[in-house]
């Protein structure tokens, strides 16, 4: 089963840049995001989007879908941040924070101004961080990412577990698609009750087939003399790009300078 994200990681325009360079770039921006103000985080998001969509050639539609999924999770958590409640006797404490509210018995439920600000702060930090993550996902193949992690000292056991988990994601998605198609062709989701039964059968069969596939993988590794380390071949035809390197260094320096200027303005 062809996964679009994995395909893009092997065919993007930044494919032959050293993975260490791309990983270091995304990590530095992620660290800046963790301590930056929302305005700088928005700049990081747009800058990383330019690297991902324009420089790497990732389709804008695919990238926006990934951003949309993250934004959808944020929207589900926004009511918990924006909606607050307090006893009517303490209403004076939230007069400046309440945008609009209603009284229910002895409680006053209102939309908090500070809660909305906190939600927007979380949104800017989330999309800036995810843009760094998406850059790594869409420009570095997973096998090369694991090789890079090994070279910087990550234990082999962790990288092996990550590789097996990554492989089983493909198996899980492929098995789910096959079972879903078979059930759909037999009218397994015509009504709500039959849909729930079909979904329960799908989950049960998915677990069964996953365990069977795990046994087959274990037997195949043992038959091939598995010695505790999975070796994956990957080419070393990387080349440095001075333009990208200079742009990354200058951009990070500008972002740090903007953050320091923003911090100095708040202090004064």
Descriptive report:
- With 268 residues, this protein is mainly α.
- The protein folds into 2 domains: 1-81 and 118-141 and 236-268, no CATH class; 146-233, no CATH class.
- The protein is built from 9 helices and 3 strands, in the order ααααβββααααα.
- The protein has helices at 4-11, 19-35, 38-55, 60-82, 113-139, 142-151, 156-185, 192-223, 242-267, and strands spanning 83-87, 98-104, 107-112.
- A 3-stranded antiparallel beta sheet has the order 1-3-2.
- Helix 4 (60-82) packs antiparallel against helix 5.
- The N and C termini lie far apart (57 Å).
- The model has no long low-confidence stretch (mean pLDDT 83).
From the structure above, extract its key features.
single chain, 268 residues, mainly alpha, 2 domains, three-stranded antiparallel sheet, 9 helices
Structural class: mainly alpha
The first-to-last residue Cα distance is: 57 Å
Gross morphology: flat
- Work out the helicity level: over 70%
The total tally of domains equals 2
Low-confidence stretches: none
Q: Note the main sheet.
A: 3 strands, antiparallel
Question: What is the number of helical segments per DSSP (H or I, 4+ residues)?
Answer: 9
SSE blueprint and pairings:
Blueprint: H1 4-11, H2 19-35, H3 38-55, H4 60-82, E1 83-87, E2 98-104, E3 107-112, H5 113-139, H6 142-151, H7 156-185, H8 192-223, H9 242-267
Antiparallel strand pairs: 1-3, 2-3
